[in-house]
Amino acid sequence: MALVQTHHQSQKLKSGLQHERPCIPLVTHIITDDDLGVLEGSKLQPINLKRVIKLLTDLHSEKLYERHVHALAKMARHYAKGFPMKDLVLLFKILNICAERVDTNPVYEQPILDILKTCSLPFLMEKSSDEIVYEQIVVESISQLGYLMRIPSSNVRNQICSTLLSFTTVKPVQDLQNLKPASLKFNNRMVEISDISETLVKSLSLLENDLSVKLKVLEILQHFSKNSAKNCDQMLHVEGARRICSRLMDTDPSGQLLFRSVDILWNLMENGDKAVLANQLNNLACISQLRDAFVYQLTQGYSHFDRQLRNDLLVISTLVAYQCPKAPFVETGYAKELTLFATFQEVKSHNALVKHLKLTTNHEDFELRKLLINILVVLSNDRTVTTILSEGHLLLALFSYVRANERKISPGELSLAQFEELQLHAMASLSTLCPLLLEDYMTCQGSTRLLLLLEWCVGPDEFGGQGNSFHGTGGRGTKKAQMRHCLRLLRSVVSTDDEVILQDLTDQGAINQLIGVLNTAFTQRTEEYDAVDIEMQSDILFILSCLCENDMHRKELFGVPGVDMVIRYLHTDIKLLNSGLGHHKLLLTSIDCTWCSIVGCYITEDYFLEKEGVFLLLDLLEICPKNMHNVILGCLLDLCENPKTINHVLAWRGKTGSTASHLLCQIWCQEEAAMGVKRDNQGAIMDVCQPLMGSIQADLGIIPLPATCVSQAIADVGENMRAKVYSLFCKMGFSDLPGLTVDDHVTLTIIEKYLDFKMGEVWSEIIGELQTENVRPVTPDREAIEAISRAIEERAVIVASTQQELIEAQKNQDVLDEQEFYAEMRENHRQKEKAIADFTDFVARTSNFKHLKSAKEKQEISIDASRLQPRFKSKEHFHETGLPNLMITAYSGKHVTIMENAVPEIKNDLCLDALRLAPVKPNSMMTSQGIFKHLTI
């Protein structure tokens, strides 16, 4: 302090001498917290690690093993509370030197263990920024820990595993001055960035004969893969799943090997790439290990832990079967054993594996039943498995659940909720399996079971469904879930088009039963249904379509009740299509049911026409979305085979009064616009060489194809609706169609020649393919091809000229209409001008006496000019037709009524004198302004 005061006084003296430049006082002595003794924790004294490295590597001291051990022990004691990040490079250089010498001299083993034990503590930072500055060094240091697994010492390997486990899980208290330990979050992030996971997986091949260390490594991998997707990806990168799964059933008295291996595989499945995992397990060794482990746990395990492990193995097997359909489940016998375990309770078996096996009603055994059914459904994608499923009577076992739910249960059996869940799961599985095993389906009398269950679903019996499972969605408290899956199963069976099954369902009265279900169970308004109800109705309509298609007798069985039912669904409000509940599917299945179940049978067709079904189809065609047009047009086209249908089509009128022909022309134009066909603004042909070709077809060009393949020109017929529109016009005719505009007539000229243009397009494609393949036809064929091409092109030119004539005629008509409109406007204006001129003349005659006299004279001259005898006034018998002294220009009698007030004031004396001269009766009235209201002469 005295030194500070002396320095301050000297500065003041200098400032007094030098006023022009004052100086700032400086304090040269800094007092730290260490000087005051207020720091907490122990102090880490620095050690020169370079001297330790020199001691280990110098030629003169490399044989001094005792000094080496002493120096390493001293270093370990000094860094007992952690290593600073700045010393990690030198530290791991020392560790690698010791690791290289431990084979020849075991004295280095203990120093390595001491250093590794200290590495289990978080690394120390002097500054908060050390985590960023030394990040790469820390990553490489953690990787070096994994590389030390090459040391052939169980103690060292065990310590490495303990170090890594503590490093990522434990946060001890490290009270050091001026140093702060890194966080656990930082440690785990560094582990993810490093390649320690890959190294540990690779090290498993070194630990085949050391079970304790192998379990430690698996424990570390289990921890690393639990919550880190990066670690899982690293493990999968070095085929960690295959390495671990291929050694599942190695000898292990403790049972930890199987548990930890399965847990690692589960973590890889949850956090890693499932496809990569499945591909690594897709081999005979892994599948065999999964099979042995599952069978062992199922037959020998009795604890809750064993049951969980058994189910986990089955889930992993299911993943492999789903991702790799060609996995060797059949070759290893795994599929046959799974079928046995899935059916042994419903179908009696004498196999030794299930002789003493019994599944209880606890949760894990219940889940096992569902998992076994699920994996067999997944395995059914492989056609070689279906034989095994058939031999194992899988369908018979699953059909044991297709029955009415009983209210009473016996002790030891499944509860109502469990039975319902298994029932729905079995029916959902049968929807996939039955189309593959049709013979077994018929053997089990599947149609009879399903129709009986359907009858129970719509019957009056009460049933309080739980609806807790995934398959029971929307069916809580009702039989909806059972009915929904029953119809799904029927739908999957009839969609195979197997005639034996279709006939079996028909013989058992399925058609009338399904129509009765629609007429009784679904009688409320369609907008009040939920998604499940809409789906069930769509399924029933689809089933009826499959049953009645291509069979006249079944269409007759469909009959009048079926037509009434379809008519009810065709009245569906089009606004409901966007509700998201599936009304668009319901409407499509209704149209499809009309097409398959009604069209083709004259009895049902006539009743359908009587119920105005054609009008309903055309109404839908007018307002429904474009993706439904194709189905409706196809149904109408087949319906037009009945001669009575044409009159209905021609009599139909839309909401705006449009006709069917106009609507079909609009659909044609919309289709060509979507295809990119070249047309002008009036819809006329622009390219006479390719009058029908769209932009997509033109861009593809000519592609030579074998004779068995369909060319672009032919495929175009089925890819759009133009062929159906053309066919409908062929039924209706191309002339005398009502409600067509000029644009419609222009379009109709193209529709009428559609077949000719399409034939020309096909020939053009043939010519192009021949040119592409450098094939020259013989002269007669070439001349014939050229003649056909010219004829088609000339026909296109004629159609184009006809269209231009129609367009010109329309333009001329528009010009005439415009002239007539303007003439009418001019006539209206002429009448208005005449009325204004008459009124102006009237005002002039009533306000100006001279003008009135002039008008009177003109009138008399005009009258005289109209006489046949020019001197009629000098005749003897001439009689005056007018009244004397009457100054008006109108032809009037004795009484004149004037209703006019246009002249506000009469100031002309001559007019007043003229009015006075006229003999006016006493009852005449005149205002003070000179306006007459009534005048009698």
Explain the overall architecture.
The protein is mainly alpha-helical. It is built from 44 helices and five strands. The protein has a three-stranded antiparallel beta sheet with strand order 3-5-4, with no helix packed on it. A two-stranded antiparallel sheet has the order 1-2. Strand 4 and strand 5 form a beta hairpin. The chain is elongated, with a radius of gyration of 52 Å. The protein starts with a helix and ends with a strand. It holds the Pfam family CFA69_ARM_rpt. Residues 47-766 form the Cilia- and flagella-associated protein 69 ARM repeats domain. InterPro entries: ARM-like, ARM-type_fold, CFA69, CFA69_ARM_dom. One of its GO terms (cellular component) is sperm midpiece. This is Cilia- and flagella-associated protein 69 ARM repeats domain-containing protein.
